[in-house]
Amino acid sequence: MNTKDKIYFISDVHLGASAFGDPREREKRLVSWLDAIQPEARSLYLLGDIFDFWFEYKRSVPSGFTRFLGKLAELSDAGVEIHYLTGNHDPWIFDYLPEEIGLTVHKDPLVTQIAGKTFFLAHGDAQSNCSFSFKLIRWIFHNRFCQFLFRLLHPDWGIKLAHIWANHSRRKELKNPKPFLGEDKEYLVLFAKSYIKTHPEIDYFIFGHRHVPMDLMLTPQNRIINVGDWLKHDSYAVFDGKELRLEPKRHCGLDPQSPDN
């Protein structure tokens, strides 16, 4: 009997961010969690912003994260399938992690079948209705010419500037947290409700980005989960082929009453 039958989803760890406490301690918590799930994990989906900043130069990558990267390599070597869906803080993952660890990188939303269920997976930033400035910054980050220009900066300067920007973003979040806005105002919920009008086959939408754990039934057949973050919640989702759960069980929205629970 194969005991490695669980699929795990996690997002928004923001490794390296100092505004929410000791980054090394957060990394150790994450590695301890990966240790705990390893005996039962078949697949691991990293839904973006795992790093507070990551940029691959041709011959250089950001320092640090040794424990986490080593654990990912160990999981991959043990046969755990790892997927990385890039977020707005780490869209610059290119060849290094796939070659060194063996994970699969996805730059776009992923629609996939797992145990007969259809999942729509994404970080969530591309599905947002955020300000024009946010959308402009996202376009710049994904533009290949802008990426080329950033590579012209020495890594000591480029990475330092990026961390200053990222920490500024985290400090803004500390000062002005955005709690659950309600089902009629959460943009990821509104996106999913619109999407299922033309794609009713989607059983589960799973996102990150909002930093707010959410678990809502959109219809009796369609469900949305936001896996939250590891800055305040240490939350994740797990699917065992029959039941999808958001853990720990501290989340906004309604308790799901789907037929497969």
Instruction: Characterize the main sheet.
Output: 6 strands, mixed
Number of helices: 7
What is the strand content? 15-25%
Q: Which spans have pLDDT < 50 for at least 5 consecutive residues?
A: 254-261
Structural commentary:
It is built from 7 helices and 11 strands. By secondary structure, the protein is of the alpha/beta class. The protein has one domain (6-247): Metallo-dependent phosphatases (Purple Acid Phosphatase, chain A, domain 2), CATH 3.60.21. The strands form 2 sheets. A 6-stranded mixed β-sheet has the order 4-3-2-1-10-11, with helices on one face. The protein is globular. It starts with 5 loop residues before the first strand and ends in a 14-residue tail after the last strand. Residues 254-261 have low confidence and may be disordered.
